[in-house]
Amino acid sequence: MPSNPTAAILIIGNEILSGRTQDVNTKFIAGRLAALGHRLEEVRVVPDVAERIIRAVNELRAAYDNVFTTGGIGPTHDDITSECIAAAFGVPWEKHQESWDALERHLGREQFNEARQRMAMLPRGAVPIPNSVSIAPGFSIGNVHVMAGVPRIMQAMFAGLETVLARGTPIAMRAVHGLRVKEGSIAAGLSAIQARYPQVDVGSYPFYRESGSGVAVVVKGTDVEALEAAIGEAESLIAAEGITPVRGEPPV
Amino acid sequence: MPSNPTAAILIIGNEILSGRTQDVNTKFIAGRLAALGHRLEEVRVVPDVAERIIRAVNELRAAYDNVFTTGGIGPTHDDITSECIAAAFGVPWEKHQESWDALERHLGREQFNEARQRMAMLPRGAVPIPNSVSIAPGFSIGNVHVMAGVPRIMQAMFAGLETVLARGTPIAMRAVHGLRVKEGSIAAGLSAIQARYPQVDVGSYPFYRESGSGVAVVVKGTDVEALEAAIGEAESLIAAEGITPVRGEPPV
């Protein structure tokens, strides 16, 4: 899949690193990126510390075609993403008149206090990401897309981004699973399938469920013909173990 | 919390980057590390690509006191963590006799095929991590602790590690929440609390639940006295908004 754009996610959040919060934004963004044909190559979680955010933004934006950040864009003292992005890009962090006016209109002059006025400060050159559910100030600057940490707001922002992001060839996935199959028994066969279809990724994932244990084989890539051929061979491999292969992911 | 050991998590997994799998290992390890008094400073997710794994291992083990990896230690072609760790440390990847014998005993000679024999290969100098639920070959080498990706196996390995990891001062957390509280209204007060108690981290997290929306204030740190004082002040801040503050996290 060499021609698809690459992507990274940067999660800015003490709440993930402390174990307080289960991150669910990665899975959402990852799934959407696959559908858009972007290859997600890395995820990083860093604390709400300016120097750490700035360094991660600069490393990731240099390494990948797009960077998606979540978290740290609210009105409180721990919301420092926006000013860190300005520092990372070496541009002023300044009043964004359009956002200022919209916030003032939305909140009323009395509620538009100093803390909330910070939300109208953006890096120079930033373009706001419209979103239908909140006043949280997401924005894009260069190849960095800055979104809220709250999942439903992040998702609304991503929907806005989807209308402007470049499209690649969608990355498709096929799965087959077999109950009671042991990874070690089909490993050599899987390795041969991967060798025959180097243009797709063949993954093997043992699962342990109340309904039963086994192995799921997952093939992903942009070449649908190779994908179908590879998953068909994985199916035969499971059948050769005397087990009935079942298309799709194992039941939850 | 400057005297506590620092930590990073490295998740090796195409299945996370493709959006197929919801990572739950980060939250588990993060919570346990906080209890052990280790400061989790970074999480990275990288694909099953040797060069990427090696680079991440070397960057993280240089930057943090401990690195915990998950994923890629099974018998299939996409399980390359162990040999990558050997490459990262610049040591041979070789047959570990004790693991070899245990696997052969456990599986029987006939089942102990070439694919499974790979699981008995470890970086020279690695020490196996005992675990009660599987034959998956976790190990520690230097400050890097290599665990399975399957959550229940990873958790059993982490339990083994906990008996040998250094202890720091446990990182405690206190939370208070207020329904209908707006972040922007308490932002200035929270900022003042953070300034008065620089030894703890004061975080503000809006929540949106079917049972109601509001803000949770979370304070964490090793100084329990400061923690109690800070959360008490956050409580007063919410009360000053005319809202009854409730100790603990908001209801799910």
UniProtKB/TrEMBL annotation, chains A, B:
**Coiled-coil regions, chain positions:** none
The record, for SMART domains, names:
MoCF_biosynth (SM00852)
- MoaB/Mog domain span: 8-168
Record Pfam families: FLAD1_M (PF24102), MoCF_biosynth (PF00994)
Q: Which Gene3D superfamilies match?
A: MoaB/Mog-like domain
Show the PANTHER family listed in the entry.
NICOTINAMIDE-NUCLEOTIDE AMIDOHYDROLASE PNCC, NMN AMIDOHYDROLASE-LIKE PROTEIN YFAY
Name of the featured protein? Molybdopterin binding domain protein
